[in-house]
Design goal:
Blueprint lengths: L1 E7 L20 H14 L9 E6 L7 H14 L7 E6 L6 H9 L4 E7 L3 H6 L6 H13 L5 E7 L6 H13 L4 E6 L7 H7 L8 H17 L3 E4 L2 E3 L6 H8 L2 E5 L4 E3 L4 E5 L3 H9 L5 E5 L2 H13 L5 E2 H26 L3 E4 L2 E4 L7 H8 L3
Parallel strand pairs: 1-2, 1-9, 2-3, 3-4, 4-5, 5-6
Antiparallel strand pairs: 6-8, 7-8, 10-11, 11-12, 13-15, 14-15
Helix pairs in contact: 1-2, 1-10, 3-5, 6-8, 11-12, 11-13
The chain binds iron/sulfur cluster (SF4).
């Protein structure tokens, strides 16, 4: 099993909160497609059988159908896709004309992930998003009309000044679209982003912790009563519509990431990532020497990653698997650290060899994970 991630590092403009690697100069788009195809060929041995493909960004919907045809032709030549169940493309609402939605549906994509973030025009404007609420709704409808059934939308909450009532309106808009998957992330003030600068200079005030918890709690409550399974801290799906690609990250499956700053993982003890610079990336590929940094993951690091990724999921982890993977010592350490949360019966549950966050534990997941991690 393996995943293939393809990074499209272009954005028409930068959103206020974003720290993903992307640039706004689209003049090298054609050269980038050439480089992607070459990188794929150079690194094809990293994985063989591909179960999921994910085009993320940046903004993959800035690519033309012709660009995608070229990339897919290379994927098909180099990898075994006979078991590939999910091929996702991230799209921005204002790129989705009816013709473009039809073109995407003609390509091998069977899932779209739409970066809506909020249905409030003032919030969209503040975040420097390119679209408005009407375009967001239209984009979903256009994808549905083009034949996509597996549609995910992204939302952000915890924006400065956000209230429960404005978040409620957002959730009602999201639910009215009838999409089977919703990812909702709390705003994070990442380093070196314009929104963090606004916060640090006192121009905006982040929501307080009580409001954050209230918004998260309403999200869970509203989506759960509407039939969505809360299968990962930030992800909700109708039955049968979990994101397979993202689930494979949480399961520790190997993946190959192509493009600047794309990360790869060999499924065991090594991670590597491409240089976070488009010009340097292009030059490296041109010289047939990709600019890659790699890191060997020692046992405690692998254990910590296992705890962080598994505990985020509804299923948590199996104690027996933890012992098998990391040995008796780390297993005993984990149980010792988890004991008080399990004993209280409030924050961690232990049933049939499985340890997972309780409904209450989800709200303090960060501190529980920290306690279980090996420092
Ligand atoms: S469109 Fe996406 S990747 Fe581009 S700046 Fe906005 S959030 Fe970041």
């Amino acid at each position: 099993m393996a995943g293939l991630y393809i990074h499209i590092p272009f954005c028409k403009r930068k959103c206020l909160y974003c720290d993903f690697y992307s640039c706004t100069d689209l003049s090298v788009k054609d050269a980038y497609v050439d480089a992607l195809v070459d990188e794929m060929s150079l690194r094809r041995k990293y994985i063989t059988k591909v179960d999921t493909v994910y085009f993320g960004g940046g903004t993959p919907s800035l690519m033309s159908a012709k660009d995608f045809v070229r990339i897919f032709s290379s994927i098909n030549k180099l990898f075994d896709l006979s078991n590939c169940a999910e091929i996702t493309v991230e799209i921005n609402p204002d790129d989705i004309t009816p013709e473009y939605a039809d073109a995407l549906a003609e390509l091998p994509f069977n899932r779209v992930s739409i970066g809506i973030q909020t249905f409030d025009d003032d919030e969209l404007h503040f975040l420097n998003r390119r679209h408005d609420a009407l375009q967001a709704v239209e984009a979903v409808k256009r994808c549905q009309d083009a034949g996509f059934t597996n549609i995910s939308i992204d939302l952000i909450y915890g924006l400065p000044g956000q209230t429960l009532s404005s978040w409620d309106k957002n959730l009602e808009c999201a639910l009215a679209l009838g999409v089977p998957h919703i990812s909702a992330y709390h705003l994070i003030y990442e380093e070196n982003t314009p929104i963090t600068q606004l916060k640090d200079t006192g121009k905006i005030i982040p929501v307080d912790e009580d409001t954050s918890l209230l918004l998260f709690s309403r999200l869970i409550e509203r989506l759960s009563v509407s039939g969505y399974e809360h299968y990962e801290i930030s992800n909700f799906s109708l039955p049968g519509y979990r994101s397979r690609h993202n689930s494979s990250y949480w399961d520790g499956t190997a993946y190959l990431g192509l493009g600047p700053f794309a990360h790869s993982y060999n499924g065991c003890d090594e991670r590597e990532w491409n240089i976070a610079s488009l010009p340097a990336y292009l030059e490296g590929i041109r010289n047939r020497s990709p600019r890659i940094t790699s890191e060997r993951l020692d046992l405690p690091t692998r254990y910590n990653e296992y705890i962080i990724t598994r505990l985020r999921t509804k299923e948590g982890f199996l104690s027996s698997e933890l012992e098998r993977r990391f040995g008796k010592e780390l297993f005993a350490y984990c149980l010792r650290q988890a004991e008080r949360y399990i004993a209280s019966g409030m924050l961690l549950r232990e049933e049939n060899d499985r340890i997972r966050l309780s409904e209450k534990g989800i709200f303090v997941s960060d501190s529980i994970m920290c306690d279980l991690m090996k420092v």
